[in-house]
Description:
Radius of gyration of chain B: 13 Å
Number of helices of chain A: 0
Structural class of chain B: mainly beta
Shape of chain B: globular
Largest sheet of chain A: 7 strands, mixed
Number of strands of chain A: 11
Helix content of chain A: under 10%
Helix content of chain B: under 10%
Structural class of chain A: mainly beta
Shape of chain A: globular
Distance between the termini of chain B: 36 Å
Oligomer: heterodimer
Radius of gyration of chain A: 13 Å
Number of strands of chain B: 11
Largest sheet of chain B: 7 strands, mixed
Number of helices of chain B: 0
Order of helices and strands of chain B: EEEEEEEEEEE
Distance between the termini of chain A: 40 Å
Amino acid sequence: QVQLVESGxxxxxxxxSLRLSCAASGFMLxxxxxxxxxxxxxxxxxxxxxxxxxxxxKYYADSVKGRFxxxxxxxxxxxxxxxxxxxxxxTAVYYCARDRGNGDFxxxxxxxxxxxxxx
Amino acid sequence: EIVMTQSPATxxxxxxERVTLSCRASQNIGNNLAxxxxxxxxxxxxxxxxxxxxxxxxxxxFSGSGSGTEFTLTISSLQSEDFALYYCxxxxxxxxxxxxxxxxxxEIK
Lengths: 119, 109
């Protein structure tokens, strides 16, 4: 069955960087657009960005544009989120999600990884 | 940015009751709307897409309707496992700029 497993979360100081990974199994990652969605503690869902199935197109929420980068290695069935210049307001659980198309809805989600930005 | 507004924020209902959740878009999104359920400590899971199509394995008691700017999710007879958070999400933009509603919490009366 489809499985998405995020890793790489932790506590980081403001201004530092962190890279999250999302390991996919049970399907061909290279056939799907993939997204990152985050959820601050006790808050709602916020879309972070998307990468096309082949990595040729990437789009981001304004709140992370210029600081976060999504990449993928289809040969390793792995998706990444590179987060630079982290802010306190980036504290959240980060989910990777399989896109049904290119910027559509999400038919599978990982369990999430918590990123805490704090001095 | 398309703003999605869900109402009410919290709904207190009894098991076996019928309940309707609302979601409004700030502009016309056609039928490009999905609904998700999220239980405490879990990731969201897809319920409905295309405003009215149930995802694989979703029970028939869940139904979605609407188009344009007004949408509803109806649960025909609430089961204990349905008490959770529900989010709507629009996917009508190009380039992609996905937005979610703020959520409706279903709690046991």
